[in-house]
Amino acid sequence: MQVRAKKQLGQHFLTDENIAGKIAQAIIDTRIQNVLEVGPGMGVLTKYLHEHIAQFKAIEIDKESVSYLSEYYPDLEVISGDFLKIDLSSMFEGEFAVVGNFPYNISSQIFFRVLENRNRTTSVVGMIQKEVAERIKEKEGNKTYGILSVLLQTFFDVEYLFTVHENVFSPPPKVKSAVIKLTRNQRAELPCNEALYFRLIKESFGQRRKMLRSSLKTYLTLLPNCKFSTQRPEQLSIDNFIELTLQVEQALNEKKAH
User: Fold this and answer.
1) Is 137:74 a contact under the CB 8 Å cutoff?
2) pLDDT tens-digit profile of 144-163?
3) pTM of the model
4) Does domain 7-184 sit in CATH 3.40.50.150?
């Protein structure tokens, strides 16, 4: 099968059939029957998936790839569009999973879209830059722990499945890749204001070298005795961020009441 690279999207197409089979199997093993493949390109993953998934669809932004897939997989529903813009709520009835070799330069945006649709997205298996995969699975107390680590782990269990060498792509990227798996956890909703939770995490990591009393000064001036004020964001666990959000939320409500 010919493999082409969509350089304008930062896409590097997988050419190793063994790796493709392992990625596909990881999503097949979830036994989810509604699956959306993001950026199938010339179908190296698609051919392992479309015969095993009851409701399998693919979304592809490249017109040439859409034509190719429609010709070689006439029974597959190929959506010509942008995963970052399409209405995912109308894609399937009920829950679904997402799989793909994600373009490096939009992988974070793909995960933020997954977060937006987390109550219907039960699993994600994606190949991304190794550095990003390691960051996503990282725990508090480490320098690479960041916004994606906290937000994704708030709602998903993260598994680092395996590393992928750069020589199995066309064209070869300059970095190694990795396949990770996200599985929706049992946290149906947060006990705090969700929008405030997201905002505090993003603002604190926006100035990650500073203590929270500086990066979150607008909020922590309302909490002079906050135990987190002299810590940096990478020191806080998910439960810590939830606790902090509850404290800020209460302080803001009290300020508004007065």
Assistant:
1) no
2) 999 999 999 999 999 999 99
3) 0.92
4) yes
